[in-house]
Design brief:
alpha+beta
Length: about 160
């Protein structure tokens, strides 16, 4: 049986949660976070409409130009969190919680991802996933006011029963 992993990557920003939400869900930020060699393409208008309305929805997207990535958006709490789920040729299961937490005079943004790699080299794929998310945090930090000591702090481990399925 394939190994399930849990990844947590976070950055603390000096910006309020509403500003971090605005930037992290924008086309400009998504364009920076996904480099030209690993594009993520989908209906950005439908994505933003779902986040604004708080209604769960399913979107079709593509990753790396050729990997179909169906996305289920759910648990949307405007300005605070949302979850995207997928099953695709890269991951048997993928749950990505985007969490915007008030932290003193700013916001801690957390990517909490539980996933099962579909490739034979699952541990390598998990490490590459971690590096990709750290890169995303560094790219987003250029658009906000980060606490530079906390940009892309990450922990990758084998998932436990307590992690969301």
């Amino acid at each position: 049986m394939a190994t399930r992993f849990h990844l947590r990557v976070w950055t603390r920003f000096h910006d309020p949660p509403a500003r971090v939400w605005e930037v992290k869900t924008s086309a400009a930020c998504l364009g920076r976070e996904f480099p030209p060699w690993a594009p993520f393409k989908g209906d950005l208008d439908a994505f933003q409409a779902a986040l604004q309305s708080g209604r769960a929805t399913t979107l079709d997207a593509r990753f790396l130009g050729s990997v179909d990535w169906p996305v289920q958006l759910e648990d949307i709490r405007h300005g605070a969190r949302y979850t995207d789920r997928s099953q695709n040729t890269l991951y048997h299961d993928w749950r990505h919680d985007h969490i915007f937490e008030k932290a003193g005079d700013g916001t801690r943004y957390v990517d909490a991802v539980t996933f099962t790699p579909a490739l034979a080299a699952g541990k390598l794929q998990a490490v590459l996933t971690e590096h990709f998310f750290v890169r995303r945090h560094k790219a987003a930090a250029d658009l906000l006011s980060p606490d530079h000591r906390t940009v892309g702090v990450s922990v990758l481990r084998v998932a436990t029963d307590e992690d969301e399925a």
